[in-house]
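Records of this kind hold a single protein each, on a pair of labelled lines. With that in mind, the following record should read easily:
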Amino acid sequence: NGTIIKKLNSTIVFSSNTLSTKELIEYFNRQAMVEFAEYLYLQNQIGLPNDLLYREQCQWNLSATQAEAGWDITKGDEHIIIAVIDTGVDLDHPDLRRRITNGYNVLLNNNFPDDDNGHGTHVAGIIASETNNHEGVAGITWYNKIMPIKAMGVEGHGTTFDIAKGIFWAVDHGADVINMSLGNYQPFSLSKEAIELSTSIS
């Protein structure tokens, strides 16, 4: 069940309403009268994001990580929540404000994890900037929500205690994935323990 989109001599471009690209190719390759069936790929095909900086080819990282090919499999899931434990997230950012769930400020022990450094906003933007909204950048996921957790201060520094507290809060409040774009040159048993306990809980 599908439609012939284009025809050139004995070659046709066919779109299926029910089969995936892989299934469609396998189906036609089984037909004796078909000489070949292949995937038609165009760089600017319909379905790619219309975000301004994506269209201007500023986001080389998405091509480098083959995100476009991944979007053919899935563009994400709004029910899967990604916690970003960092310096917080700009809660009013036009490319993020509709992608944010309730979060936590570990440092002030409140529910206002606004970013006063910028790093956490940058990280959240790479993951989940609102895609296909004609502005800014495209996020890797088109639908997943970000749970912002502020565990580091204005200078971008923090403690393993606050990171561990952020991990526990994220898991206790429904995070499915936790992203921490941070590092430490010393062993940090407390954070390791928090990760291990959170993994066993979930």
